[in-house]
Specification:
2 copies of one chain form a homodimer. Chain A contains 5 helices and 13 strands. By secondary structure, chain A is mostly beta strands. In chain A, a hairpin with a 2-residue loop joins strand 5 and strand 6. In chain A, helix 2 runs antiparallel to helix 3. The first copy, chain A, is globular and about 55 Å long. Chains A and B meet through strand 3, strand 5, strand 6, strand 7 and helix 4 of A and strand 3, strand 5, strand 6, strand 7 and helix 4 of B.
């Protein structure tokens, strides 16, 4: 790819403004998943509708996305509304439809931050191998979007190709991995929002088998700002994901996204539909 | 309170339907917090707008609430819309306003569950004292809503009255407590949604001091059904809460709600504004 070409993530989140707060957009083949686009690309697209809005206040604090129906390759209509703007916080409702039907819905908090006392209770994993010392994941049956990430699993899974070989269940579904955009791209809120959905469904790891599944809703909390993200640039981030409970057709998983220097950039949670 | 009287939670979540999916509601003095109502009561009220809706499909899987502005004691106008109904899942948007301005917003997934393989990766705490062997929390400066819960802290905090006595910071903010409605009330999705917000702001515990704060958004995942909740009745539930990251004016906390028998009923996360 020549240096001057647009990064595929920027193509995937591109918005064509048709009126204030109203946009059209399209899926991008680089972020295709088994059915419709990768959820992370959808999260980034919807967040971008608020990021690009002239009434935006400050930077993203949280995002909740509802994946209401499969998104097709037809045009996507997006409406972004700042439903309440206070002195330092702003609440957003962002809705996406195709052919007049809701396909995704997103709410978000933006805010002006002030410097305060800060601390992190979660511990950064100790004794990690550096990204250069971990092999990139390589597997046959990968959906296209996984080629947009450099994924280097430190623990939790080595190859998805072996799933289905009648492997025994694992006692939990924790994974750690180094991850960055592929090709490399300077980190910003859009790419961080997308990376929050890059963790494989925990049920694959827990049960060591393929399971029909789909994320129904994703919530991410951002503990950073644009300046910090820009300083990270295209360095690898560390992700750590775990499962919580799997029960009668749905499970939830939680994850952390850290800078290599041990700053917790985001915490993210999702609930996933599964079928036996 | 005579046996025949309505429970204060039922009074707090009562809806007066004015048109399909449109309701009016009111705050209840029993759930008053320092400013406006307890967030858990608001979460339960908004969830109830979907629970009572004639187009509801199945039972709640997730709920995200945005606390957009302080709710006053004036009438609350609520609109509940099933924005997308699929074969077995349904996505909701529920908006609350006062005097034409949004004060809260909620999204939710409802679904029909089927019996499947199930498992829990999170471990239930071992060697817990039973609720009868833990003293109910007693403190002077308690907001009224805390009297609607029987709160028995096993660890993490003994008394909020001592906060502000120049105590040293703690290394983390984990708490465990037994909790049930006061007066006792049979558990259902509305009361579980409210209990998901019953954990004190982690920053109070972490810093051992009062801090001006307010939850901006809360997400809860429900791993149960009405039948299981009815069987629990008014028994105590075990809550375990922890802080994640506190950074420049916002922090996030996560919690689990368990039955006394060790079933994980809900996982819940929130991001909280704070000021120094």
């Amino acid at each position: 790819m020549p240096d001057t070409a647009i990064h595929p993530l920027d193509a995937a989140i591109a918005l064509n403004e048709t009126a204030p707060g109203r946009y059209t957009a399209h899926t991008h083949p680089g972020y295709a998943n088994a059915v419709g686009p990768f959820g992370g690309a959808t999260a980034a697209l919807l967040l971008n509708a608020a990021l690009q809005h002239p009434q935006r206040l400050g930077e993203p604090i949280s995002q909740t996305v509802h994946f209401a129906a499969p998104i097709t390759d037809e045009p996507i209509q997006i409406t972004a509304t700042p439903v309440r703007t206070n002195r330092s916080t702003q609440h957003w409702l962002i809705q996406a439809s195709q052919n007049g039907e809701t396909v995704a819905m997103c709410t978000s908090v933006f805010a002006l931050r002030r410097e305060t006392w800060s601390a992190t209770d979660v511990k950064f994993p100790a004794d990690l191998p550096s990204p250069e010392n971990v092999k990139p994941m390589d597997w046959q049956r990968r959906p296209e979007f996984t080629r947009r990430y450099d994924l280097r699993y430190v623990s939790g899974i080595a190859s998805l190709d072996r799933l289905g070989e009648d492997l025994p269940e694992l006692p939990d579904a924790e994974s750690m991995l180094w991850v960055r955009d592929e090709p490399p791209r300077p980190l910003d809120f859009a790419s961080l929002a997308s990376i929050c959905d890059v963790f494989f469904p925990r049920i694959f790891i827990r049960r060591q088998r393929w399971t029909p599944m789909g994320t129904v809703t994703l919530t991410s909390y951002f503990h950073t700002d644009s300046k910090t993200l820009a300083a990270i640039g295209s360095a690898h981030l560390l992700g750590r994901a775990r499962g919580n409970r799997y029960w009668n057709g749905f499970f939830d998983q939680s994850a952390e996204v850290w800078s290599a220097q041990g700053q917790l950039m985001a915490t993210t949670h999702q609930i996933v539909y599964f079928k036996e």
